[in-house]
Amino acid sequence: MSKAREKFATQVDSEILASIRALAKDEGRQLQALIDEALADLIEKRKTGRPRAHVMGAYLASHDKYGELYKKLAK
Q1: Does residue 39 contact residue 33 with C-beta atoms inside 8 Å?
Q2: Closest CA to 12 of 21, 25, 24, 23
């Protein structure tokens, strides 16, 4: 069962919009899906003061794999 959808209008920085459109194209996803994901991430982050669990899991896995590279890049 789909959740109800509601249209709204807003303005976005043109560079941000171009980047999100490119990201959607690269990932083969609809722009709306990325906007939904970004808004859900923002709401969760503001509610808990931290990123969603699956986001932190991905970060930690990346850090385990590339931690030494990150240290070198930080220098």
Answers
A1: no
A2: 21
